[in-house]
Amino acid sequence: MPTVKPALLALSAAILAGCAAQPPAGSFAISDLKYGTICGSPGPEICTQTADIALDGKEHCTFNHEVLPCNWYGFSFDYVPKMGGIKIDCDTATDYKTDFGNPEGVIEKEAVGRGYQAQLSGGHFVNPQYTGYFPFEGVHHLTESCSYEGRKLFEFTLNLRYVSAAK
User: Fold this and answer.
1) Looking at the domain assignment, is residue 1 inside a domain?
2) What is the pLDDT of residues 120-142, one digit of tens each?
3) Average pLDDT over residues 44-49
4) Looking at residue 25, what is its pLDDT?
5) I want to staple 75 with a disulfide (CB 3.0 to 4.6 A). Which of 35, 80, 99, 138 is the partner?
6) Full residue range of the structural domain in which residue 41 is found
7) pTM for this model (two decimals)
8) Does residue 21 fall inside a structural domain?
């Protein structure tokens, strides 16, 4: 069975560096958590709130310097205080082996999970992600969780289902 290859993209919102001190754990809070499919205009945002992601390969992504058919999804939330330099720790776990990476290269091969740190700035965070189009049977599950200073902020599971051949 082919391997589904999600690649975590920490786009500009996640890589902005700040010099501000971290707020105390009790003063940091998120709201309006959304997850589902991504729309790209005017900027990446959740366009359909859903845990069920249909993988049809009608979009394109760059993974390891190669343009591939894929599907975009991800999550977003608002947070306070609206200061830069806040770092959260996130984990992605799958029930299948996959290669994690980005446009520049493969970060980890044949893994079932990976941790990463996201840097927040501006009071709103969007984490676009994608899965390359590789047909498989059944439903694969991808669980995303993030915490701040050891306190879990959220956890959700996406159901990834292959639906038809890419055009």
Assistant:
1) no
2) 999 999 999 999 998 888 999 99
3) 93
4) 59
5) 35
6) 6-162
7) 0.82
8) yes
- In this structure, is residue 74 part of a structural domain? yes
Tokens of 19: 């010099």
Q: Is the pLDDT of residue 73 over 90?
A: yes
Q: What is the tally of structural domains in the chain?
A: 1
CA separation for the pair 167, 149 (Å, rounded)? 44
Token output for 55: 């993988």
Q: Which amino acid is at 135?
A: P
What DSSP line would sit under the chain, residue for residue? -PPP-EEE---HHHH----PPPPPGGG-EEEEEEEEEEE-SSS-EEEEE-SEEEE---EEEEETTEEEEEEEEEEEEEEES--TTEEEEEEEEEEEEEEEEETTEEEEEEEEEEEEEEEE-SSEEEEEEEEE----SSEEEEEEEEEETTEEEEEEEEEEEE-S---
